[in-house]
């Protein structure tokens, strides 16, 4: 039974709100590479305490390295961690992109049965060269129609063989598929975000193209933190960003200040200052990818570990340079101040 009250008799609806979401890493035990569930639960609760929602089994979560059964375990663990920490109103977004349309639908059904609130779906890039615009549209239409929970489009050319959905196609899908309730743009294209956000936030759009659940609205999220302030001023809704694993309080603060600045420009200078901090850090830390984020979590919180093979762990010299980098240290200083922790 779906946990969000859509397509079923469940009583809980956790709306997808504007804000910051973190794609949670999947943590593994060092010798066996089995899932490290306690570390995962700790981290989900940690980011939620900062006002950041979890995305489970995404790119940062190495979904491609997980079995279907492991994905279900993580969904259960994420919901348990949120509920136990007092965040029962925080939704779980779960990556359900598979190698085929059939598997993507299967993963969506499994996620819904495990209690996920939303599915985030990326197109498979294995046969990217053969996937025409019509084929890509048909993929998302069928998945949206058959998924028991609402779907977020995930546009990430780097993880889908270069597939880069344009704003026209995304707006078409939003208009024609009432079960699609958002998009994550890890293409980093600010113009694309602007065009989509301007369309879906127009006062005439939502009444004309209502979502399947009338309590939902279409959300436009960036995939990086380096344009949070600009995106707020073009009606963007926040971001799903890996950096929120490392600095959830800082990134949530930038989003809050950006929204406040839309009504009162006196908040803008501080939003711009912090935007500079996270933009510099995002540029530096993103280069180290998943292994870099896990290394920083290990340094900061005592858990992180290595990715699953064949992804290599971060080289020790690269790791130490990342930790010592002025952009990293600047971010950590701000994060400690905002979180109330000095070390």
Q: What topology does this entry show?
A:
Blueprint: E1 19-23, H1 37-49, E2 53-56, H2 68-84, E3 93-95, H3 101-113, E4 118-122, H4 133-146, E5 151-155, H5 167-176, E6 180-185, H6 190-200, H7 205-208, E7 219-222, H8 228-232, E8 238-240, H9 248-263, H10 268-286, H11 289-301, H12 316-324, H13 326-339
Parallel strand pairs: 1-2, 1-8, 2-3, 3-4, 4-5, 5-6, 6-7
Rg, Cα atoms, Å: 19 Å
Structural class: alpha/beta
Spatial ordering of strands, largest sheet: 7-6-5-4-3-2-1-8
Q: Report the end-to-end length measured between terminal Cα atoms.
A: 43 Å
**Secondary structure: number of strands:** 8
What value does the average pLDDT take?
Answer: 94
The unreliable regions are 1-11
What share of residues are in beta strands? 5-15%
The arrangement of helices and strands along the chain is EHEHEHEHEHEHHEHEHHHHH
**Proportion in helices:** 40-55%
How would you sum up this structure in a few lines?
This protein has 343 residues and is of the alpha/beta class. It has 13 helices and 8 strands. It has helices spanning 37-49, 68-84, 101-113, 133-146, 167-176, 190-200, 205-208, 228-232, 248-263, 268-286, 289-301, 316-324, 326-339; strands spanning 19-23, 53-56, 93-95, 118-122, 151-155, 180-185, 219-222, 238-240.
Overview of this protein structure:
The protein has 343 residues and is of the alpha/beta class. Helices cover 46% and strands 10% of the residues. The chain has helices spanning 37-49, 68-84, 101-113, 133-146, 167-176, 190-200, 205-208, 228-232, 248-263, 268-286, 289-301, 316-324, 326-339; strands at residues 19-23, 53-56, 93-95, 118-122, 151-155, 180-185, 219-222, 238-240. An eight-stranded parallel β-sheet has the order 7-6-5-4-3-2-1-8. Helix 1 (37-49) crosses helix 2 and helix 9 (248-263) packs across helix 13 (326-339). The longest helix has 19 residues, at 268-286. The chain starts with 18 loop residues before the first strand and ends with a helix. Residues 1-11 have low confidence and may be disordered.
């Amino acid at each position: 039974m779906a946990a969000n009250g859509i397509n079923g008799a469940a009583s809980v609806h956790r709306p997808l709100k504007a804000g910051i979401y973190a794609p949670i890493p999947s943590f593994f035990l060092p010798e066996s590479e089995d899932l490290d569930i306690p570390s995962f639960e700790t981290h989900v609760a940690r980011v939620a305490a900062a006002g950041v929602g979890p995305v489970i089994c995404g790119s940062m979560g190495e979904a491609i390295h997980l079995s279907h059964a492991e994905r279900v375990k993580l969904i259960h663990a994420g919901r348990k961690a949120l509920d136990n920490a007092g965040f029962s109103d925080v939704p779980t977004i779960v990556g359900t992109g598979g190698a085929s349309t059939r598997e993507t639908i299967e993963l969506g059904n499994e996620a819904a049965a495990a209690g996920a609130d939303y599915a985030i779906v990326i197109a498979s890039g294995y046969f990217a060269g053969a996937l025409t615009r019509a084929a890509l549209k048909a993929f998302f239409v069928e998945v949206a129609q058959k998924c028991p929970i609402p779907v977020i489009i995930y546009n990430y050319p780097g993880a889908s063989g270069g597939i880069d959905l344009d704003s026209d196609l995304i707006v078409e899908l939003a208009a024609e598929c009432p079960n699609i309730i958002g998009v994550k743009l890890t293409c980093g294209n600010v113009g694309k975000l602007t065009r989509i956000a301007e369309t879906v936030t127009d006062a005439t759009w939502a009444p004309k193209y209502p979502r399947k659940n009338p309590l939902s609205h279409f959300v436009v999220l960036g995939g990086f933190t380096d344009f949070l302030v600009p995106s707020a001023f073009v009606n963007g809704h926040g971001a799903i960003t890996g950096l929120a694993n490392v600095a959830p309080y800082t990134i949530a603060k930038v989003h809050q200040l950006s929204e406040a600045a839309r009504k009162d420009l006196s908040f803008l200078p501080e939003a711009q200052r912090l935007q500079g901090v996270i933009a510099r850090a995002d540029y530096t830390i993103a280069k180290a990818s998943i292994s870099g984020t896990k290394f920083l979590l290990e340094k900061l919180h005592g858990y992180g570990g290595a990715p699953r093979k064949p992804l290599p762990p971060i080289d020790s010299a690269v790791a130490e340079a990342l930790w010592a980098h002025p952009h990293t240290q600047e971010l950590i200083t701000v994060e400690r101040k905002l979180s109330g922790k000095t070390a």
